[in-house]
Amino acid sequence: MALSAFVFATNSLAQDIRTTPLTFEEIGQYKVINDKIVGSEMLDLEVDVDESQVISVDLSSSNTGTYFNVSAIDSEEALFVGASEGPVADVTAPKTGRYVVRTYLVRSAARRGEETSFSIGIGINQPEFADSLAGGPDFWQVSGVGEGVTLNLRNGPSTRYSIIGKLRDGDSLENQGCRLTGSDRWCSVRVNSFGSTGWVAGQFLIESSKPMTPASLGNSPTGNGRPFDATSTVSCSTRPEKAQSECVAGVVRSGLGNAGVWIALEDGDELQILFENGVPVATSPGSEFEFDEIADVYVVNIGPARFEIPKAFIFGG
């Protein structure tokens, strides 16, 4: 019911809906449409699909308020709502018929008369391919790239998308699901070494076992329940009269420069320091702090305590 209301509300804004039928001569064919809409304009791409076939769609745009929905042409209920589910969809058709992929600006952007240039890719695939790709191993390893060559990590499942990182043979990746973009397999992955997520070409991935958990160094922090991406020791001093020593620390990374660091203290407690975009932004339990960057080290002062955290511990690598 909520999805139906969403689609109806979107339709009520429409002043100009352009409709373009797409024809696919064969299963696995992939088409890219580059277009622009302004304000409450919408673009409807119509495709004929057999029951159980998979409609694969991906969207990149110049305006972050650009989304697409997928629905049967005779239904107000969306099978996929981009505003809540993201820019990549693999939708299984519940029945044979015509389906609509509607690209639009979110209501607030439409009312302001904003515009967006976008590139939307659409393909039709058989269900057995989609089912096999959606599963797979828990972990991949990059293989076959070649010495001195890197594999691009992109922010979408196609070479149309921007490069957000570089990977090398042997890098360990957490599998978050694969799909076909045309005839090419693309996989959504989390890079274990620095926590970023993105898409890579599946031809350079081989099945791998779970990477070894960093060894416990004794008196280790417990963190938030998620396995640490790395553990190490950091230079620390918890009292003014105490000389700098070593405290065991663990880090959970969630993208370049974004990380949570847990430090085990000598009294059995632990301290968390949250980093965003390479900068300390908060501590737990919420103590006031100051920090400096000295060479390749963050020096974080929390009251009388001092912690020296290497940048490599935050960014990985």
Describe the fold and architecture:
This protein has 317 residues and is mainly β. It has three domains: 2-127, Jelly Rolls (Sandwich); 135-208, SH3 type barrels (Roll); 230-315. Helix content is 10%, strand content 51%. An eight-stranded antiparallel sheet has the order 21-20-19-18-17-24-23-22. A five-stranded mixed sheet has the order 1-3-8-5-6. The radius of gyration is 24 Å and the shape is elongated. The model is unreliable at 1-14 (pLDDT under 50). InterPro entries: SH3-like_bac-type. It holds the Pfam family SH3_3. Residues 141-209 form the SH3b domain. This is SH3 domain-containing protein.
Instruction: Determine the N-to-C terminus distance.
Output: 47 Å
Tally of individual helices: 5
The secondary-structure class comes to mainly beta
Low-confidence stretches: 1-14
In CATH, the topology of the largest domain is named: Jelly Rolls
Main sheet properties: 8 strands, antiparallel
Q: Widest sheet: strand order?
A: 21-20-19-18-17-24-23-22
**Fraction of residues in H or I helices:** 10-25%
CATH class division of the largest domain: Mainly Beta
**H-E order:** HEEEEEEHEEHEHEEEEEEEEEEEEEEEH
- How many beta-strand runs? 24
The Cα radius of gyration reads: 24 Å
Provide the CATH architecture of the largest domain. Sandwich
Strand content: over 45%
Number of separate domains? 3
Average pLDDT, rounded to a whole number, is 86
- Categorize the overall geometry: elongated
